[in-house]
Design goal:
Elements lengths: L5 E6 L4 E4 L1 H7 L3 H4 L22 E8 L5 E12 L5 E8 L4 H9 L3 E6 L4 E4 L1 H7 L3 H4 L4 H4 L7 H14 L3 E8 L6 E12 L5 E10 L1 H16 L8 H12 L6 E7 L18 E8 L14 E2 L6 H8 L3 E3 L4 H13 L4 H6 E11 L2 E11 L7 H38 L10 E8 L8 E9 L5 E11 L1 H19 L4 H20 L9 E9 L4 E7 L5 E3 L5 E3 L18 E4 L5 E5 L11 H12 L6 H12 L8 E8 L7 E6 L6 H15 L5 H18 L4 E7 L2 E8 L19 H8 L2 E7 L2 E9 L4
Antiparallel strand pairs: 1-2, 1-5, 3-4, 4-5, 6-7, 6-10, 8-9, 9-10, 11-12, 11-16, 12-13, 14-15, 15-16, 17-26, 18-19, 19-20, 20-21, 21-24, 22-23, 22-25, 25-26, 27-28, 28-29, 29-31, 30-31
Length: 778
């Protein structure tokens, strides 16, 4: 037996008759302590059946060391024969003694074990025993599948990998994450399984080593949660952000989670001075890992009330995370109060092993509180969980505050915009109008779109639509400036191209003034201004970088008006061109902002074609046509404001207008007055004759005295009585204060006092002075 470091001789009765020094070193027993004793006394567990029945058989046996610990051995059994060739005993040998290696493996912090071809444990170290929660003598010789019968993790996957290694001889490495049989705490393991080959290359055993990677796994999980928290608040909606936080916590971090916000957070006001713990809490989000467990005690949007010493109120009052659970007096009192309030959730509260109450604080302001509850069998929250929850809640709180600020800014911008946009459009004879304005719901905020309908002299009307670059309050404020500027410039009856030129100068000056250093800031806008005259049926329009309007003619044909758009406002130095066209009565002009037809995924030509088709939709009114156009053309999720203005043209009949050519001689003024009086009688407006004759006399006399021929007088009877006197001079009149002994200078002052309003406008051939009187009440 010199070739074997550990060997023993067993006779036919099973008694030890020989014991080598290697066997002593391996088991701790001296020869005199073993020889003469039954070999079975050395075993910590019964040997496999038939161990001594075959020649050259190998098997795994567990021997009890002299110090009491079990030692797993790989034994080789050879029969011994007497002189007659009959069986006379067995020689049992094992490999060379490796006490030092055995001690190192046994004491290793890595779980190491060896299984035979039948997946029975042949060797386990101390770490494996701790991991599986059983001593070595209960593991050695047992099948792994029996050992893992109560394993709640991925036992099936584990056994599958072991079988793959045993059957194919391939090495396998994978990660397992599940509770260990030794307890409920979840562990992560990096497991490596490799085959053990004999001298012939056959797989005789499977060895495995498992390194616990729980902390690394949890670190990755925490990083994953923090990374996911970075996406919170993308919608800039307070409630949706709270729902995203709850969805992030459940089920990975909590079995139940809720978010309660202070009531002012859901409004558009600044933070209130009331201490957070005294403010009203509103439930905005909650979720459970198990549906219906628990049933929420507060419905979404309802008031949540907590005792003053409960963890949520403490978190609000102290501004820090509160970690609590069963055994904490304050927690227990809180649970008892909840049992009285909602007894149907008692089973859930009895299962709660730990809770975290986390204040939602951003920029020094407390917004609310988040609650996370963990139930058995998961382990209670630890300090590192509280740190993670605080970081998650902090990121969510910033997103909630951003959403709150966005809502407040949006509300402010919308209020400003609504105050500037026309509500009830003034009555006038030129066009019938309908309009829609839809503010953007995107995260970019409300834009600077606007529209307007401006009554002009001579029953004409100005139609305006524009769009300021950017979003939010700055764009709304700029829109207000431009809207006011357009009305001011339209009031002096500038033609469309000249009006846009002045507006372009204004935008350039505003941009330069906003920077404070003389450089032009990024401030721009587009605008389209059109003037329609119902007497001539002519539409004159010019655009500054704005989409051309669509036109629906009475015969049902549609087209986009061909015109030169010109540069956007604020570019400066480039001209604007006016386009004129004559429209039949009943034509519909559609003015709109680019939000109606432009989108990142749309072809603008296709969208404008859809607009033209939508204008032909049957509609009972212009308002109904507005709705049809928006439904057919507007993007499903518009990223910009949408403004739409529809105007159906009207025409003044010849019976409403009377024109006279006036000779440039004062002697003809009396004849003109008589003609005017006669016309007023035919219109049934004899009551206005006295005032109208005075106005006509003053305006015609001024034109003869200070203007240039040809001179023309026109009376228009519509919603008001309008008197217009045109001449070829471009010099505009103005009011002045006449001194006591002046012979003139009182004519325009008299006109201003006798009429509702008056003014002058430049024309292509000179100027027109006009005055408007109200019609007598019927």
């Amino acid at each position: 037996m010199e070739h074997s470091s550990a060997a023993m001789i067993v006779d036919a009765r099973g008694t030890v008759t020989g014991w080598s020094d290697g066997a002593r070193r391996l088991t701790g027993y001296a020869a005199e302590e073993v020889v003469g004793r039954p070999a079975r006394d050395l075993l910590a567990r019964d040997a496999p059946c038939g161990l001594l029945s075959g020649a050259g058989q190998e098997a795994t046996a567990v021997v009890r060391h002299r110090d009491g610990r079990p030692v797993g051995l790989r034994l080789r059994v050879c029969p011994l024969l007497d002189a007659d060739g009959a069986p006379d005993g067995h020689a049992v040998t094992c490999g060379p003694s490796t006490d030092l290696i055995d001690d190192a493996v046994r004491q290793a912090s890595v779980s190491m074990s060896v299984l035979d071809a039948d997946l029975r444990f042949a060797h386990v170290n101390d770490t494996t025993c701790r991991m599986l929660g059983r001593p070595a003598d209960e593991l050695l010789g047992r099948r792994l599948s029996d050992t893992l019968a109560d394993f709640e993790g991925d036992a099936r996957s584990f056994l599958h990998h072991l079988r793959v290694v045993a059957d194919t001889g391939r090495r396998v490495q994978y990660e397992s994450f599940s509770p260990a049989p030794a307890g409920t705490r979840v562990h992560a393991w990096t497991v490596e399984i490799w085959p053990v080959h004999d001298a012939s290359g056959a797989v005789t055993a499977v060895a495995m080593a498992a390194v616990e990677s729980t902390e690394q796994h949890r670190a990755r999980e925490r990083l994953g949660l923090l990374n996911a928290a970075g996406a919170l608040g993308g919608t800039l909606d307070v409630v949706r952000t709270a729902e995203e936080l709850v969805g992030l916590l459940v089920p990975r971090f909590a079995g139940f989670a809720s978010v309660d916000l202070l009531d002012w957070v859901l409004g558009t006001h600044e933070p209130v001075a009331t201490p957070p713990e005294d403010s009203r809490l509103l439930r905005v989000a909650h979720a459970s890992a198990t549906e219906g467990f628990p049933t929420p005690a507060v419905h979404l949007g309802g008031n949540e009330v907590h005792p003053s010493d409960s963890p949520p109120v403490r978190a609000l009052r102290e501004g820090r995370v509160v970690l609590s659970g069963p055994g904490d007096p304050e927690f227990d009192r809180w649970m008892r109060s909840r049992d009285v309030r909602t007894p149907h959730n008692r089973a859930f509260r009895e299962a709660v092993c730990s809770i975290l109450a986390v204040p939602l604080r951003a920029r020094g302001t407390t917004l609310g509180v988040a609650l996370a509850a963990r139930t058995a069998p998961r382990e209670p929250y630890a300090v590192e969980d509280a740190v993670l929850a605080e970081e998650l809640a902090g990121r969510a709180a910033v997103s909630v505050d951003n959403a709150r600020r966005f809502a407040r800014e949006r509300s402010t911008a919308l209020a400003i915009q609504r105050s500037l946009l026309p509500r009830d459009l003034p009555g006038q004879a030129a066009v019938e109008v309908a309009h829609r304005y839809l503010p953007s719901v995107s995260a970019a905020g409300i834009g600077g779109d606007w529209f307007d309908v401006i009554p002009l002299s001579g029953t004409r009307v100005g139609l305006v639509v524009g769009d300021v670059v950017g979003h939010g309050i700055p764009s709304t404020a700029t829109m207000g400036r431009l809207c006011t500027a357009v009305r001011t410039l339209a009031d002096v009856d500038l033609p469309p191209d000249e009006l846009l030129t002045h507006l372009d100068d204004l935008v350039t000056h505003l941009a330069a003034g906003d920077t404070g250093d003389g450089e032009i800031a990024e401030l721009g806008a587009t605008c389209l201004y059109a003037v329609y005259d119902p007497a001539s049926r002519r539409l004159s329009l010019a655009a500054a970088g704005h989409p051309a309007p669509a036109l629906l003619l009475p015969d049902g044909t549609t087209r986009i008006v061909t015109m030169t758009a010109g540069p956007p406002l604020g570019v400066g130095g480039l001209p604007f061109e006016a386009t004129e066209l004559e429209l039949p009565e009943g034509s519909v002009v559609a003015l709109y902002t680019d939000g109606l037809v432009e989108d990142r995924d749309r072809d603008i030509d296709h969208a404008t074609a859809e607009l033209c088709r939508a204008l032909t939709s049957p509609a009972n009114s212009l308002d109904a046509l507005c709705d049809s156009v928006l439904k057919a053309v507007m993007p499903e999720e518009p990223s910009d404001d949408v403004a739409l203005l529809l105007a159906r043209t009207r025409v003044l009949g010849t019976e409403q207008i009377r024109t006279w050519d006036v000779l440039a001689d004062p002697v003809h003024v009396a004849a003109v007055r008589r003609s005017v009086a006669e016309q007023l009688d035919r219109w049934g407006l004899g009551e206005t004759a006295f005032v109208t004759e005075l106005v006509v006399s003053e305006l015609v006399t001024n034109a003869i005295r200070y203007g240039e021929p040809p001179i023309q007088l026109r009376l228009i009877r519509d919603t008001a009585l309008i008197c217009e006197v045109s001449d070829a001079s471009s010099t505009s009149p103005h009011l002045r204060r006449a001194h006591a002994f002046d012979e003139g200078g009182r004519g325009l002052l008299l006109v201003a006092q006798l009429t509702r309003r008056w003014g002058s406008r430049q024309t292509g051939s000179g100027k027109t002075i006009w005055a408007e009187q109200p019609l007598p009440a019927e």
